Amino acid sequence: MRESASGRVFSVFVHTVLIIIALTCILPFLHLIALSISEGQAVDLGQVLFWPVGLDFTAYKYFFQNTPALRAFGNSVIITLGGTALSMLTTVLTAYPLSRRYLYARKPLTTAALFTMLFSGGMIPTYLVMNNLHLTNTYWSLWFVGLISTYNMLIMKSFFENIPSEVT
After folding, report:
1. ∠ at Cα 20 (16, 25), nearest 5°?
2. What are phi and psi of 38, to 5 degrees?
3. Could you tell me which residues come within 8 angstroms of residue 87 by beta carbon, excluding any fewer than 6 positions away?
4. pLDDT digits over 133-142, tens only?
5. At what angle do helices 69-99 and 58-66 cross, to 10 degrees?
6. Chain centroid to CA 71: how far?
7. Cα(102)–Cα(127) distance, rounded to whole angstroms?
8. Do 136 and 145 touch, CB atoms closer than 8 A?
9. Is 54 left (phi over 0), alpha (psi -120 to 50) or beta?
10. Over the stretch 12-61, which tens digit does the pLDDT of each residue have?
11. Whole-prediction pTM
12. What is d(CA 98, CA 28) in angstroms, rounded to the nearest whole number?
């Protein structure tokens, strides 16, 4: 099927707008990268736009030698992996028992968990608890705060409820 003239004009217009939007997102990053690997004098004189002038990696060398960037990245990995593993473990260990119909006080416990999802204690009480447990400035203080996601626990509870009791 052949496209009409107005359809082609519209298509060209849409593509042009999308290309302009893409360039407004990409060009600042290209400029920043070009600035970071160009010689300092060329940067000071404003000669660098999107292509580096005289390759110079001194800024990166200085950055990795004089900043704790790699340690910060390592902390991010540890916090993310540890937090994810602990959160998954506690979510499953909470959701599975709550999904079993024979659990005593199942509905009040689910309601209590739902209540904590809707109303949190707040930042200051959380800090006071972490401080009294001597967990400030530790990974555990970050992990305990998000140890269980009630929303994810309720979704997982619903999933476990749909598994036939003959299987479990």
Report:
1. 150
2. -95, 160
3. 143, 146, 147, 148, 149, 152
4. 998 989 999 8
5. 60
6. 19
7. 37
8. no
9. left
10. 999 999 999 999 999 999 988 888 888 777 776 777 778 888 887 887 88
11. 0.64
12. 51
